[in-house]
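Subject: design request, 330 residues
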């Protein structure tokens, strides 16, 4: 069966603004970060958090996430950098691609933990807040692989098969790969959008808190990443017949499931930002104080009187309550 149509791939992944190269991969990562910050900031403020706190946390989480992502990639692909024909210094060339999402999550979590310690925001509260924005950011960032013509799946005859170019060091197409391939970047991007919708709906319907939204994000993302990873044909280490990233996805899914089940019954936290800059976590089930109906006339307080209660002589003049006036008992 021949493909009835195909998806094109870009023939360039870098543009130059004078001497400054603008790489599509980096722009996609930046766009994903902006999406995550915007969504997370709105969610945190809806819970009572202060405006701008997500930006302060991102200052720590984003650099740690990028470093973690690169370290994971280098560790799991050592031959490219430390093999017989490897170039060790290329490990620092992040702009050429090569970021591992697992390292990004771990590194970003470390940076977020540091920021939470500084601000007083509980890490689990932050995890629930940022989960939808985080998975949307991953969906946006995946388009960088499309520009780089990388990490595609095996050959397919489906109408949406992807045309792939061989890219040169200058970020321009050199040749076209024969055949059409599964657009795994598109599969993962759409899957991430679906997971984000799932998180928001589940949180509202079942009042998920205590890190359960983040745990659901881990389960949702890894469930999709598992089958998408199975389609990919790029070089990878295999363990017991599975790619290393497939094993990582499985382990993370189990960890997320355990956390999700262990934290049952915890509702989403509400926050209060005090005048002295502290964040107070409020009881999510606490009812707000009853307000007086505008249609009801306020009840006037009875004026104070100096007359003594005939049944309790001397209380008013002594300025004591009934409990205070009673003698101590053995």
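Subject: RE: design request

Done. Sequence follows.
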């Amino acid at each position: 069966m021949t493909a009835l149509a195909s998806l094109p791939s870009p023939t360039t992944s870098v543009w130059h603004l004078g001497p400054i190269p603008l790489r599509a991969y980096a722009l996609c990562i930046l766009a994903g970060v902006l999406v995550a910050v915007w969504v997370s900031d709105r969610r945190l403020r809806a819970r009572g958090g202060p405006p701008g706190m997500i930006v302060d946390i991102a200052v720590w989480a984003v650099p740690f996430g990028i470093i973690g992502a690169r370290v994971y990639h280098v560790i799991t692909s050592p031959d490219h950098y430390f093999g017989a024909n490897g170039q060790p210094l290329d490990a620092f060339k992040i702009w050429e691609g090569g970021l591992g999402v697992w390292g990004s999550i771990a590194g970003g979590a470390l940076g977020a933990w540091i920021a939470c310690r500084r601000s007083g925001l509980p890490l689990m509260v932050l995890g629930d807040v940022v989960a939808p924005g985080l998975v949307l950011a991953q969906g946006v960032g995946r388009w960088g692989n499309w520009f780089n013509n990388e990490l595609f799946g095996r050959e397919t005859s489906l109408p949406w098969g992807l045309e792939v170019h061989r890219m040169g060091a200058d970020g321009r197409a050199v040749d076209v790969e024969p055949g059409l391939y599964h657009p795994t970047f598109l599969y993962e991007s759409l899957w991430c959008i679906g997971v984000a919708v799932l998180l928001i709906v589940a949180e509202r319907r079942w009042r998920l808190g205590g890190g359960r939204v983040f745990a659901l994000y881990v389960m949702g993302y890894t469930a999709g990443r598992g089958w998408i990873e199975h389609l990919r044909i790029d070089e990878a280490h295999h363990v017991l017949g599975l790619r290393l990233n497939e094993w990582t996805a499985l382990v993370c899914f189990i960890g997320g499931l355990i956390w999700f089940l262990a934290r049952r019954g915890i509702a989403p936290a509400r926050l209060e930002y005090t005048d002295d800059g502290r964040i107070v976590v409020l009881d999510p089930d606490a009812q707000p104080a009853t307000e007086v109906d505008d249609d009801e006339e306020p009840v006037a307080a009875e004026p104070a009187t100096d007359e003594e209660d005939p049944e309790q002589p001397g209380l008013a003049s002594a300025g004591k309550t009934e409990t205070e006036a009673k003698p101590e008992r053995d």
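Confidence is low (pLDDT under 50) at residues 287-296, 314-330.
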